[in-house]
Amino acid sequence: MKGACILDIDLNETGLKVTIQSSCHPQHISIDVMSVRAEEKIIEKVNEYITRQGRLDVFVNVADILRTGSTVDIPV
Fold first, then answer.
1. 33 contacts 19 by C-beta, under 8 angstroms
2. Which branch of life, at top level (predicted)?
3. Has residue 30 been placed in a domain?
């Protein structure tokens, strides 16, 4: 397969579905609803993904609570 395949894991199922709908290549995106705090489940899911896809090129953990607003107004 040419290009990246994406495994997207999040608690927000609606957000995951929006990601797929927004993609130019939704067939390349796999989603799963779970907490990224569940380390053993995440490892299991990533291993399943590698078995299915044959590879994992990039792994990014971007777990955060999304807050919108002006950057001046958001405390750090």
1. no
2. Eukaryota
3. yes
Q: Are 57 and 51 in contact (CB under 8 A)?
A: no
- Residue by residue, DSSP assigns the chain as --S--EEEEES-HHHHHHHHHH-S-GGGEEEEE--TT-HHHHHHHHHHHHHHHS--------------S-TTTS--
Residue 59: band (very low, low, confident or very high) from pLDDT cuts 50, 70, 90? confident
Distance (Å, whole) CA 40 – CA 61: 15
Domain assignment present for residue 68? The answer is no
Determine which of 24-28, 54-58, 65-69 has the lowest per-residue pLDDT on average: 65-69
Domain that holds residue 39: 6-53
46 band by pLDDT with thresholds 50, 70 and 90: very high
